[in-house]
Amino acid sequence: MKQIRPNSRQPTGLKKGDPMKPFHPEQYDPHSNLWSKRNRKDLIATPIFNLVSWHTTSPDQKISKDFFHLESLDWVNVIAITPENKILLIDQYRHGIHRFSLEIPGGIAEKKNLLESAQAELAEETGYVSQDWEYLGKVTGNPAILNNWCHTFIARNVRKLHDQDLDDSEQIEIFETPIPNIPKLIADNILHHGMMVAALGMYFIKNPIQN
After folding, report:
1. Quick check: is 5 in a domain?
2. Cα-Cα-Cα-Cα dihedral sign, residues 58, 59, 61, 62
3. Domains contained in the chain, number
4. Do 50 and 96 belong to one domain?
5. What is the C-alpha to C-alpha distance for residues 147 and 112, in angstroms, rounded to an integer?
6. Is pLDDT of 11 > 70?
7. Greatest Cα pair distance in the chain
8. What is the chain's Cα-based Rg?
9. Are 66 and 81 in a shared domain?
10. Are residues 163 and 60 in the same domain?
């Protein structure tokens, strides 16, 4: 039987008769055997992202063509928890899907660091602040076409300090709901923003709901 080194990359994929490889997380390296990039072209610049292309070649040289992706600053979102163990939710119109979207606070990481960006987004969108912050983790929004990451923070014991300080393009309504209600909101597709759902999923992995 053909022997395969754990987590070695096979550019042509699994062929008939090949054994399925077990996955070994401790051996996984997403930065090994990368495709080469050259001839960057800046195509379109906007206030929120830039469209660029790279001529990219696979390690086995079988694929060599222009690929397109969007460049953007990283994003942050915040799981804001009140002293009563309720989560703050915001509702705003989303142009991409032409409907309102129930979410957790978040936005572009424009401040000096990620924590300051998360604190600013929470304060601006809700008027709430916290002295108890924890970095939860990060996910990619769509690594096929986006180059950035979305980072999630937990803000505990949030309190209302001031009115919202929204951008001139924002209209946001604020709600709160008990933490145990969140899974049903996701299951019912009321909370559907992918990165927000991922953030809440990470939260419940580390903080399971107790029956």
Report:
1. no
2. negative
3. 2
4. no
5. 20
6. no
7. 68
8. 21
9. no
10. no
Beta pairing class for 75-80 and 149-156: parallel
Residue 82 within any structural domain of the chain: yes
Q: Rounded CA gap, 176 and 155, in Å? A: 14
Same domain? For 133 and 162 the reply is: yes
In a domain, 48, yes or no: yes
Q: What is the pLDDT of residue 12?
A: 60
pLDDT value of position 2:
42
| Mean pLDDT over the full length of the chain | 92
Residue 205, CA distances (Å) to 117, 200, 202, 209 in order: 24, 9, 5, 9
37 or 14, higher pLDDT: 37
Domain that holds residue 59: 35-71
DSSP string, 51-77: EEEEEEE-TTSS-EEEEEEEE---EEE
Tell whether 28 is covered by a domain. Answer: no
d(CA 172, CA 166): 8
pTM higher than 0.85 for the full model? yes
What pLDDT shows up at residue 3? Answer: 42
User: What are the angstrom distances between the C-alpha of 32 and each of 5, 27, 29, 36, 144?
Assistant: 14, 11, 6, 11, 18
For 114-173, what is each residue's pLDDT tens digit? Answer: 999 999 999 999 999 999 999 999 999 999 999 999 999 999 999 999 998 888 888 999
The model's confidence at residue 23, banded by pLDDT at 50, 70 and 90, is confident
Specify whether 151 is located in the same domain as 104.
yes
Q: Where are the alpha helices (DSSP H) in 5-131?
A: 114-126
CATH number at residue 195: 3.90.79.10
